[in-house]
Amino acid sequence: MEPILKIKNLKKNYHDMKDEIMAIENVEFTVYPHEFISIVGPSGCGKSTLLSILSGLDQKSDGTITFQQQNPKIGYMLQKDSLFPWRTIFENCCIGLELNHNLNDETKERVNRLLKTYGLIEFKDKYPDSLSGGMRQRVV
């Protein structure tokens, strides 16, 4: 069976004016179809860095990443939400639709249904600073 993801000798360094910080080094693993994996480790060990590299939000310093398919769709929940404080919860939920020119009555209704499903419908006209951390994560 062909792996859907293979990582070999993955490395990420961050640089500032004084130092180089090794975020991850020699990360290797293979993921096969229908496998469920978890990335576990102490704070600061590079879990988020690894996910950011895999999703294309950050660049690796060295190593190889091979996906079975070209341009795979990858998503993960960021540690800190990226809500715009000047937009309501509903407006924050619609931003992807707006950017892709897909915001219409039908997609707005779908957003409302999802807000209801996630227990956020009564907060749709509120701003992010009025939500708890867990609620903010559900908006993202």
Q: Could you estimate the helical fraction of the residues in percent?
A: 25-40%
Low-confidence stretches: none
Largest sheet: 3 strands, antiparallel
Shape descriptor: globular
- Give the distance, in angstroms, between the N- and C-terminal Cα atoms: 35 Å
Give the class from helix and strand content and strand pairing.
alpha+beta
Average pLDDT over all residues: 90
Spatial ordering of strands, largest sheet: 2-1-3
Query: What count of structural domains?
Result: 2
Beta-strand residue percentage? 15-25%
Q: For the CA atoms, what is the radius of gyration?
A: 19 Å
Number of helices: 4
Order of H and E elements:
EEHEHHH
Oligomer: single chain
How many β-strand stretches? 3
Describe the structure.
This protein has a three-stranded antiparallel beta sheet, with helices on one face. With 140 residues, it is α+β, with helices and mostly antiparallel strands. The chain folds into two domains: 5-67, no CATH class; 89-139, no CATH class. The chain has four helices and three strands; from the N terminus they run E-E-H-E-H-H-H.
